[in-house]
Amino acid sequence: MALGVLRQLTRIASVVATVAVLACPTLLEAATGQSGSSAKRPAAPSAKSTTKKSAYSANSARARRTALARARATALARSVRDAQTPRFKIDEFGQEVPDVRAEAAIIYNPTTREVLWSSNAESERSIASITKVMTALVTFESGIDLATPVTVQLSDVSHASTTYLRRGYQVTVDDLLNLLLVGSDNAAARALARVSPYGSDGFVVRMNEKAQVLGLTATRYADPSGLLADNVSSAYDMAQLIAYAAADERIGGVMRKASYSTSAGKRQITANSTNQLVKTGDIDVLGGKTGFISSSGYCLASLLRLPQTGQQVAVVVLGAKSNASRFWETRHLFNWLSSRTKALVGTGDAQAQEQLQP
After folding, report:
1. I need a surface site. Which of 1, 96, 150, 315 has the fewest CB within 10 A?
2. What are phi and psi of 119, to 5 degrees?
3. The total number of structural domains that make up the chain
4. pLDDT of 160-172, one tens digit each?
5. 284, part of any domain
6. Residue 179 belongs to domain spanning
7. Which residues fall within 8 angstroms of residue 163, CB to CB, at 6 or more apart?
8. Domain containing residue 300: CATH number
9. String of b and e for 114-145 (b: at least 16 CB within 10 Å)?
10. pTM, whole model, 2 decimals?
11. What does the pLDDT look like over 266-305, one tens digit per residue?
12. Considering the domain boundaries, does residue 242 fall inside one?
């Protein structure tokens, strides 16, 4: 009997324990050795909330890019409008004269060697690719045959910045001269110096010697391309140089080309002029050369012809603020001079020339 009672009590105890465990899951976790903290971890974000957050970020990024693009477009439009508007000031003689935004500029009469107007024309500045005008002069004066074949080398194209050439291309000296003056090709400048009778180093020496012969006292050359900031000159010197070089039809004729095409084996090369005045044709351009590196700003040296009298004038702009502004500054200076010439043309050439002096 006692044994039966014991068995009954054991069954009752087992039932009570089972009920207790089911009522308190933590007891089961303790019994099985599991940590209660794992059951209380926060649920991972749902796919829906993640998608919503990503969509919001993408929309914000697009909005920021759009706003930035609009701001840049507005700034560019404002800059263009500003460049297109000529500015004037009253000088010490009470005359209205140009008020250029560029660092230096000049209007020069190469026939009389007179300065018709200037601003900081004697200050020395980097001239960038206007250097190539002297490169062309020295190449022609070297007497090298323009039909001479040239194989482009790695040293020509390495870090050349602007070039239509590649290592191994086979072209002629004439091709290189056209690429030099039309497309402002830096590798072409290096190749011309390399194959010249002087060699690369001797070519630069000859460039400086030629500058001395021409009386360009503020001009010094460091390389034939203009990539180095050590190529320096003044607006006054560059006005004399562009007038001298463009008078040589071998150079002036190339400068007036809107584009130049040639081939290197099976490859076609087409270089477009960097001179917008040549492309638009709104001014009679006899010759011109652009230039830009960060230390020089945007530069342009031009030999132009006045429509009323046919008089040639050199207009040089150095250190303009943008690519467009160097062309507009040149137009403004040319138009200012042209308007004065038109007003005075009935007084006779000699008297008109005298009154054009600032």
Report:
1. 1
2. -145, 115
3. 1
4. 999 999 999 999 9
5. yes
6. 82-355
7. 157, 185, 186, 187, 188
8. 3.40.710.10
9. ebbbbbbbebebbbbbbbbbbbbbbbbebebe
10. 0.78
11. 999 999 999 999 999 999 999 999 999 999 999 999 999 9
12. yes
